Amino acid sequence: MAKYSDRRSARRSKIVPYIPDETPEHRHARRLGAAVRTADELREWCSANGWTFAVHNGVDHFAFRRGDTMLDWWPRTAKLVINKQWNKGIHCHDYQQVIKFLVKNSKETMK
Predict the structure, then answer these.
(1) E runs forming strands in the chain
(2) Is 51 within a domain?
(3) How many domains does the structure of the chain reveal?
(4) What is the pLDDT of residues 80-106, one digit of tens each?
């Protein structure tokens, strides 16, 4: 079991859907591959919406920043963490789900 289990899920993904009987290794590789293929789209969205975007640790860690708000995403394991609150992780499968959390956090930082 992971050090910090995710508290909630962003729901099912249409981009990298769950496949019954798929090994975790294959599922994680599919998630990472989909994230890498969409990294340019994420970068463009972030640039247009006031977020900085960086990829770290090869391609395993995607980092988003806006003001004091930070979102960290590990697409291979679908872990999304907001402001380093590790115990409140969100199981987030694809870039569209990540964008939803970026939008939500954009609105919260504008208050």
Answers:
(1) 8-9, 52-56, 61-66, 69-74, 79-82, 90-91
(2) yes
(3) 1
(4) 999 999 999 999 999 999 999 999 998
